[in-house]
Write a structure and sequence with these properties.
The protein is α+β, with helices and mostly antiparallel strands and 586 residues long. Helices cover 53% and strands 18% of the residues. It has helices at residues 2-57, 63-74, 105-111, 148-198, 213-247, 267-272, 281-284, 288-300, 337-374, 380-410, 422-439, 458-475, 521-527, 533-543, 569-572; strands at residues 77-82, 87-90, 116-121, 128-136, 139-146, 252-256, 262-265, 304-308, 317-323, 329-335, 418-421, 443-447, 453-456, 481-489, 492-499, 548-552, 558-565. Strands 2-1-5-4-3 form a five-stranded antiparallel sheet. A five-stranded antiparallel sheet has the order 7-6-10-9-8. A five-stranded mixed sheet has the order 12-14-15-17-16.
């Protein structure tokens, strides 16, 4: 690193020095040369004028003497010519042997009465001269100044400039070495600090007191490291708290990555199944329902639930799988084994008790009716017998409803589902309750009779309508009208029973379909209800793959709705003998 920084700094210094040298050579040197040439020319002009004045005024000296003296004083060659260009006197050559100067540009200008200036190389010496001529009476005088001195001076200045550049280069070399060493040491500290941070040592620190860019960089990195350490410590604390929380749960929790490999599991999951991190989840849990909800949550990015029965032999788990933000899913397994066992025990107990009560209740009811038929109308015993018969009848209905509910809940009751037109189900219900509705002074109507077919057990759905209509007749007779209907809803048909009675308060709606739940307990007992009708209707609808719910507002009546799935096309096609043909999947 140090060598790379050294050469970079050296290259920068060299570029600055070269740029400075070239700038000085191009601008300053040339300006200095031009200034020196102008100075020499100006001096020669003045001396040429003085030379011309002396030639005009000095009658005591010969022209040759004057030329020699002026040449010595000016440091230049002096020449005097006549109007024809002939040389009258010259400080360096014999006038008789000198060439005619009539065509030289400086003499041409001088003979016109002007100061003539020209620059050219001498044909005899090959040296550049600066010529300045001034007019006199009958001719002109001229100085010829050799420019070789100017070029020598320029060469000396260029040599001095190059020498200074060389000295500056050596100084730059030394400065670059020192600066590279210092900079490399500071950058090496920053690199080592960054490597420690990258390796996970968030406690690493860097000390830099300089206020330059490198110092600011080091301070920013140190501040970032402190911030990262605080955040990481907070994250570790949060992670430990989360692990403690998850490990304290009675439910098993397992996290699966997007590659279907185990990422984490709590202690409860470890007790259920030996879990290996980074191993495929199928090696830990082979239950198909569990694997299905994990795959579904990962692919559909939604929460799914399922009942798993083969995670651990003889145990039942409720599995809830939710997608994780970066892919994969987390699953919570709740052990329902004891709950399922207790529920089965409860259903068996209810079924057994109801079954055992059916026979004695039937006997009590029968004997009570027999005694009523033969008793005296004025006898008080008849009143007691009527009470016995009514309560025995009510207990008989209660046991029948309990048996029905137990069979539906446990799945023992098998439903013979077949394609049935929705309108037929509505008509069956109306026919069965038309007379009873009239007896209550209620008009029974059908609206929105859907032409679609649904998969349903005709008798079971009739019982659902029976329970809903019976409730409406008992509790909503004041409305004077009862409406049944069916309408399409996506892949289902939505059935409803609407009354126009007093309605139900909103706080009762969520619990209407619970067993033995009554909105008005006193009125329900008077009407002979068992409190199980809506619970039976709910479980029948659920067994058909539908849902049931109620909507109501006080003083605006109530609507009880349930859905049934549409029948598929093959189920609607029947042969002449009424059987459904077999279809082969293509």
């Amino acid at each position: 690193m140090r060598n790379r920084i050294f050469f970079k700094l050296l290259a920068a210094f060299v570029l600055v020095i070269v740029a400075g040298t070239v700038t000085l050579d191009i601008s300053i040197r040339r300006a200095w040369e031009d200034s020196l040439r102008e100075t020499i020319e100006s001096n020669l002009r003045q001396k040429a004028v003085m030379f011309a004045d002396r030639v005009r005024s000095d009658r005591g000296s010969s022209l040759q003497q004057i030329a020699s003296q002026e040449a010595k004083a000016a440091g230049a060659r002096a020449t005097i010519i006549d109007v024809t260009g002939g040389v009258l006197a010259d400080s360096e050559t014999d006038a008789a042997s000198a060439n005619n100067q009539a065509e030289e540009p400086e003499f041409v200008a001088a003979l016109k009465g002007e100061i003539g200036v020209a620059k050219r190389s001498s044909e005899r010496l090959g040296v550049p001269f600066l010529y300045v001529a001034a007019p006199i009476s009958g001719g002109a005088v001229r100085f010829a100044y050799p420019l070789s001195e100017l070029e020598a001076s320029t060469a000396r200045s260029r040599h001095t400039l190059l020498l200074g550049s060389a000295i500056a280069f050596l100084a730059a070399l030394l400065i670059a070495g020192v600066a590279a060493q210092l900079t490399a040491r500071r950058l090496r500290n920053i690199v080592q600090f960054s490597e420690r941070i990258a390796a996970g040592d968030l406690g690493a620190r860097i000390s830099e007191v300089s206020g330059d860019e490198i110092g600011q960089l080091a301070a920013a990195l140190d501040k970032t490291a402190r911030h990262l350490q605080r955040n990481f410590e907070a994250l570790q604390t949060s992670q430990r708290q989360l692990e403690i929380l998850l490990n304290s749960m009675e439910d098993a929790v397992i996290a699966i990555g997007p590659d279907n490999r185990v990422q984490w599991a709590n202690q409860r999951m470890e007790k259920l199944q030996h879990t290996r991190l980074s191993a495929p989840v199928v090696e830990t849990v082979r239950d198909p329902d569990f694997l299905r909800v994990i795959r579904g949550a990962n692919e559909l990015r939604t929460v799914l639930t399922a009942r798993a029965t083969s995670v651990v032999r003889g145990r039942v788990f409720d599995v809830t799988a939710a997608p994780m933000p970066e892919g994969g899913a987390v699953a919570v397994l709740r052990d329902l084994t004891e709950t399922v066992r207790m529920e089965k025990t409860r259903r068996d107990f209810i079924a057994n008790v109801s079954h055992e009560l059916r026979t004695p209740l039937t006997s009590i009811q029968g004997y009570a009716e027999t005694l009523l038929d033969g008793s005296n109308e004025n006898n008080h015993a008849r009143e007691f017998l009527e009470i016995i018969r009514k309560n025995a009848s009510r207990m008989s209905r209660l046991t029948e409803d309990l048996l029905t509910l137990a069979r539906v809940e446990s799945g023992e009751q098998r439903f013979d589902t077949q394609p049935v037109m929705a309108g037929e189900l509505l008509n069956d219900a109306v026919e069965s309750f038309q007379e009873q509705a009239r007896a209550h002074g209620i008009e029974l109507q059908v609206e929105n009779s859907s032409q679609a077919a649904v998969n349903a057990d005709r008798e079971a759905i009739h019982q659902v309508f029976s329970n809903l209509i019976d409730n409406a007749l008992k509790y909503a007779a004041a409305g004077g009208r009862l409406v049944l209907g069916a309408r399409p809803a996506a892949d289902r048909v939505e059935f409803y029973v609407r009354d126009f009675g007093a309605g139900i308060a909103s706080e009762h709606l969520p619990r209407l379909f619970e067993r033995f739940y009554r909105v008005d307990k006193a009125r329900s007992r008077e009407s002979g209800g068992t409190g199980l009708g809506l619970a039976i209707a709910k479980h029948i609808v659920l067994a058909h793959g539908g849902v049931i719910w109620a909507e109501s507002e006080l003083n605006h009546g109530s609507v009880f709705l349930f859905t049934l799935p549409l029948a598929t096309v093959p189920e609607l096609v029947k042969t002449a003998d009424g059987t459904v043909p077999e279809f082969t999947e293509l």
